[in-house]
Amino acid sequence: MEETKPINLEHIETNARDTRTYAGAFLLFLPIVPIIATIFCIATYLELNLKAQASLTGIVWVDTIIPLLVGIILTLILWILLAFLFHRFTAVKRANEKSFYSLMNHLSTLNYYIEILPDDKTKEVIQYRKSLCLALKEKSASWIVGNGYIELWDFMDSAEEALITVAPLEKVIADAIYDEMRLNDSNIVNSEEWVNKLRSAVNELDPDAVNYLKPAVGTHSLVAKTNPQQQTSATNLGGNGATQQSGAVTSQQALAIKQEENGAAQQSGAATPHHTEARAILRLVRETINDFNTKSWDALISARNQLYSTMTLVGLTGFDFVALAIIFHVNLLHLEAATFYAFIGGLAGLIGRLSIESQNDKTVDDYRLSLARLLVTPLLSSLAAVLGVLIVAKTTDLNMIYNFNTSLVPNLIIAATFGLSPNLLINQLQKKSEEYKGNLQSTQPTSGK
Length: 449
What we know:
- This protein is mainly alpha-helical.
- The protein has helices spanning 9-15, 22-29, 33-51, 60-86, 92-95, 97-116, 123-136, 142-145, 147-163, 169-183, 191-205, 228-235, 240-247, 251-268, 273-327, 332-357, 369-392, 398-401, 408-420, 422-442.
- α10 crosses α15 and α15 (273-327) runs antiparallel to α20 (422-442).
């Protein structure tokens, strides 16, 4: 069958460039568009009023909106230019290279086992692989948003879970040992119970493999586990002890018989009902781990997208205030001073944010959530600085607040102080994201200590 043939990974990687979109490129730069428009409008307004005091057109309302029109047009031109230059980074291969190449490695392993296993056993695995390959060809902005990768990993996880039911025994055992190490000290609810279920399933498939697992807490090793009646009879060292030994089957003998049955079943290629149940349990354990990780990844991506949405809305709000100030012909000195305070506040907030972000753990990919925090901080800090100077001022006279007179130094200190304040809010959001990253980190293989 055509579907059973191994997928050409080089072909997928080569065609990945076809998944790029201009919609994704425009979306990529959307959060900074209002900020750029605001800067252009302020610069145009100051330039026109400083150099040309007379009316440009003789029509008042036209002269009023010229800075806004120039700012908006220049922003649109720059936005289109940036989208054209960077749209190649919206492809599935470029939007998150680490996730893409990790997926390719998993797909390579999946192809190997589909090729060596009988076709009638890999139908479910092949179906998931087909869905994965179709998703990899999808041309959409989902790679920039991030939810496209969640969909890809859902298909891959489902394929690998289905593979557990048909893969060679040594592969299943090795994966079970790996999953046990991931469960150790993880934040998954009832992780110890899942470890016990995994241990029982491994014992059913291959009792010798239990030696590679961490001993169960509060229980005896499954290999050395004996029947309670045998333990009671073993304590009787009297005359009927010899009779018990000659007529009873010891736990070691039962274990040897079980191993012989397992070996015979493995050689014949047949799977006993108990083996099928054990593999189903191991598949359920893997599903639990994958579902836990998927929810954590999805939470990180959602937090990043919410930050970008907040940045866009705040930027639009700032642009509206500047537009109103231009329409009502705000004093040039006031606008210059407010812009300067905004710059100082944004710079102070950015420095504070960089200091905090430098201390974060970078081992877990957060889908550029930390970058979103860096971008949104200067914007919030700028607005906080401008409002902070106004709030702290002991007068309502704007000529005394937004100017470069003797109160400049105190106002700069106030602007810098208020510029640091948004970091308090962002730190609270960061704690939640660090919790999600901690959940992902907890499912990395550990020694179980």
